[in-house]
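Need residues for this backbone.
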């Protein structure tokens, strides 16, 4: 009897969820918080465990159409690796360059990599989204984001 791919994926997700949940139980508790910082990670961990179990029991046999749909073209793999590289550069630049500039740069690069053609829309979204998020976190929520090289 062949192992169903969905069952293998569900077991991997289950192990990941257990490790994630173990790490979320190590988050420090804050004495004056109504909802502590560990609520969301723990909830997501338990949800992933439940969904992994559901996937395990709903696994079905592979058909030829399923195998064909799972095939990924070389161009798509290159795009995925490019997005991963851009994400890693974004993470690396977030502290030294700052949230605002690195997010604008990231949001300008990703649509280009994905083949989005409307440049005006891309520029507007990159600047407006980054600006609104930076303003909202820093000034409305009083959560300081990395400012980097900018003086504000």
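Answer:
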């Amino acid at each position: 009897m062949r192992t169903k791919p969905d069952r293998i994926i569900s077991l991997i997700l289950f192990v990941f969820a257990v490790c994630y949940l173990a790490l979320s139980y190590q988050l420090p508790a804050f004495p004056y918080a109504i909802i502590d910082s560990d609520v969301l990670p723990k909830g997501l961990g338990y949800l992933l465990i439940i969904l992994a179990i559901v996937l395990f029991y709903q696994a079905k046999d592979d058909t030829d159409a399923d195998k064909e749909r799972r095939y990924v073209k070389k161009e798509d793999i290159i795009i995925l690796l490019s997005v991963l590289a851009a994400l890693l550069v974004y993470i690396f630049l977030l502290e030294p360059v700052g949230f605002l500039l690195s997010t604008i740069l990231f949001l300008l690069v990703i649509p280009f990599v994905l083949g989005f053609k409307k440049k005006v829309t891309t520029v507007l979204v990159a600047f407006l989204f980054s600006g609104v998020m930076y303003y909202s976190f820093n000034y409305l929520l009083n959560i300081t984001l990395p400012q980097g090289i900018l003086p504000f």
